[in-house]
Design goal:
122 residues, mainly alpha
């Protein structure tokens, strides 16, 4: 049995709509997070930083198979979106995920993808 994608009648449940609208936050900043992670290279970098807590720019470049300049660009973007932090140690710059929320977001998204594939939804 296939479920239709739209309601067959138009009925607005005003109480539900009102409740949701009242509680719905401004999602503008959250959109930025998902846009940042929607890029395959940046998601690979973020996932890499769930495996290794801190990595230098050169190591990130080697993992993603890019130039140091390209890796640096993507890392800077993640930092600007408050998804990563950086620190300089001598002549090296090291990056890590900003906090456990980012770590969990990346891991949960990956787990969800695996479950979808295993359940035939991928």
């Amino acid at each position: 049995m296939t479920i239709k994608e739209v309601c067959e009648v138009t009925t607005v449940h005003e109480e539900v709509v009102g409740r949701v609208r009242k509680m719905l936050p401004d999602v503008g900043a959250t959109v930025g997070i998902f846009k940042a992670l929607a890029d395959e290279t940046r998601l690979k970098i973020a996932f890499s930083l769930t495996i290794e807590e801190e990595m230098c720019v050169c190591d990130v470049a080697a993992v993603i198979g890019s130039s140091v300049a390209t890796a640096s660009h993507h890392l800077r973007y993640l930092r600007e979106q408050a998804l990563a932090t950086s620190r300089k140690k001598g002549k090296m710059v090291y990056y890590s995920l900003a906090d456990n929320h980012v770590h969990q977001l990346v891991k949960v998204a990956h787990e969800h993808t695996i479950e979808g594939v295993e359940n035939g939804n991928g």
